[in-house]
Specification:
The two termini are 18 Å apart. The chain has one domain: Ribokinase (UDP-N-acetylmuramoyl-L-alanine:D-glutamate ligase, 3-Layer(aba) Sandwich). By secondary structure, the protein is of the alpha/beta class. Strand 3, helix 4 and strand 4 form a beta-alpha-beta unit. Bound molecules: adenosine-5'-triphosphate (ATP), 2-(4-methyl-thiazol-5-yl)-ethanol (TZE) and magnesium ion. Keywords: ATP-binding, Kinase, Magnesium, Metal-binding, Nucleotide-binding, Thiamine biosynthesis, Transferase. InterPro entries: Hyethyz_kinase, Ribokinase-like.
């Protein structure tokens, strides 16, 4: 059946401009994330041209959220103290107009994070980013994946992503072989990238941080999320071409994020 909603694709020039703006402004990205991927996420942000700050302590997180350019809230290892900091940071970000990304890692059968993620879903995130199984749980259309891994395809999460965007007001980004990003009306697929990203822990988590960096540069959260995913895919392709396994891929991926130019992004990105 033909889609009722026309797909809008951003121009290569808009992607290039977004990356150029990121490099020119070095956005300050507050990261409240899991213990597994903290270092990798900070290195990904630095390589891309942003400034990371892992401020996730209650009493500090709210004040920092008010001045950060963008923020990531990732529920991978959501200890009680970190959840308190996240609630404080979200309230402060919303009050100050700081855009923020929610990554509901491994929601489904794990009760504490799932209940918390549903509350954050309803607290006006700018972007919700996850794998297909996580997005389906937040849309109340699935029971979750296998730990942090998806057991659903991006295609099978498409209707859930649209419904989640419409109910939450967030742009919803679903990662997988081709990423799907929607604001409920406009839907964009970002193709390419590398399966090697699934063999480095934090492949998805750091993508959420990159989206937070781009959010500070434009009022169009869909463009920000698409630009973030397109940079990520372009760098992953370049890294895969010279890597011999996950270890050398991770190093090459940081190098590729650092050297990717706006013009190269414009000529590499494949959107539909
Ligand atoms: N089969 C694939 N081919 C190409 N790229 C892929 C493939 N699967 C995932 N990716 C890419 O890997 C990155 C991480 O996506 P993934 O769906 O693995 O996230 P995730 O499950 O949230 O990861 P994390 O382990 O960090 O929580 C994204 O950039 C995505 O485009
Ligand atoms: C492996 C793992 N476990 C909890 S968070 C995390 C990082 C990838 O999502
Ligand atoms: Mg994930």
């Amino acid at each position: 059946m033909e889609s009722m909603v026309p797909s809008i694709v951003f121009t290569p020039g808009e992607l290039a401009d977004a990356l150029g703006a990121l490099r020119a402004s070095t956005p300050l990205v507050q990261v409240l994330t899991n213990a597994v991927v903290t270092n990798f996420t900070a290195n990904v942000l630095l390589a891309a041209g942003a400034s990371p700050a892992m401020v996730d302590v209650p009493g500090e997180a709210g004040g920092f959220a008010a001045v950060a350019s963008g923020m990531l809230v990732n529920l991978g290892t959501p200890h009680g103290e970190q959840r308190a900091a996240m609630a404080e940071a979200v309230a402060a970000a919303n009050a100050a107009g700081t855009p923020w990304v929610l990554d509901p890692v491994a929601v489904g059968s794990l009760g504490i994070r799932t209940n918390f993620a549903l509350k954050l879903r309803d607290a006006s995130p700018t972007v919700i980013r996850g794998n297909a199984s996580e997005i389906m749980v937040l849309a109340e259309a699935g029971s979750g994946g296998r730990g942090v891994e998806a057991t659903d395809t991006v295609d099978s999460a498409s209707a859930a992503a649209t419904a989640l965007a419409l109910r939450s007001g967030a742009v919803v980004a679903v990662s997988g072989e081709a990423d799907l990003i929607t604001d409920g009306t406009r839907t964009v697929h970002v193709h390419g990238g590398s399966k090697m990203l699934t063999l480095v822990t934090g492949g998805g988590c750091a993508l959420g941080a990159i989206c937070a960096a781009f959010l500070s540069l434009t009022d169009d959260a869909l463009l920000a999320a698409v630009a973030g995913h397109a940079c990520y895919s372009a760098a992953a392709e370049r890294a895969e071409a010279i890597a011999s396994g996950p270890g050398s891929f991770a190093v090459a991926f940081l190098d590729a994020l650092h050297t990717l130019t706006p013009a190269e992004l414009a000529s590499t990105a494949v959107l539909s």
